Amino acid sequence: xxxxxxxxxxxxxxxxxxxxxxxxxxxxxxxxxxxxxxxxxxxxxxxxxxxxxxxxxxxxxxxxxxxxxxxxxxxxxxxxxxxxxxxxxxxxxxxxxxxxxxxxxxxxxxxxxxxxxxxxxxxxxxxxxxxxxxxxxxxxxxxxxxxxxxxxxxxxxxxxxxxxxxxxxxxxxxxxxxxxxxxxxxxxxxxxxxxxxxxxxxxxxxxxxxxxxxxxxxxxxxxxxxxxxxxxxxxxxxxxxxxxxxxxxxxxxxxxxxxxxxxxxxxxxxxxxxxxxxxxxxxxxxxxxxxxxxxxxxxxxxxxxxxxxxxxxxxxxxxxxxxxxxxxxxx
Length: 331
Known about the structure:
alpha/beta; Rossmann fold; 7-stranded mixed sheet
């Protein structure tokens, strides 16, 4: 059994002593990273079943990029981006019993309509969050929810992998992929990672048993008879993935919109296909937290940026691990 270790409650100013406004990164129009700019917004008040969280770190995800460019999840601007949050409970709404002021927490704001973590404060449903253990920094905790829950929900729940499962992970050192490799290994799977040559050693350090360099080799010619392909790339990858699955095998993708041709082909070949959109999930977060405490899951931080440089964070491209915004305590 793993014994959870959580920090003592952090001292917080009384709610009455809080400032009335907060810094937030907002966008008034759709576009590139340059549309993100700092503004002052009223600090919200938690309602029934809500927490007001003093944000210490916010994860940056491809879904943020898509939302910034197209408004796919938040509609017409203005809006504040960000679903991944780690911070300290500033106040609790009526009926909340799981947390108190000063508790350190992290989680995934309700996807896709609950964004707002690129700010000094954010409202969150109580059961979207869990306590942050001592072993995780705020930055590490903010890197886990969306990407970690995506991998967990695809592998542990949808694919139901177990000891001896064979899994191929594309984009295996990226924001979702590097966590998927570790989660698959923690579940007892044999993992084949598809990465570039420069990331081969990193993939092995994450636990990959075999590595395929996609820049020089077509993975569909290298392996066969696998139980699961975990795809984050889209394009022609789903169709190629069908060639490496055993009869009854499963292709799971973070890009359901890319699966049209693969679904028809899979049905003809007795294969299964599933596209997954991440859901805010307290139980999944607890499972991920347990893996971190057992040393089975460690988020890779590509780079951190201060809140006011959110545009730079969106422009940064490394392809390994997660980018995280840090929010200094100024109010």
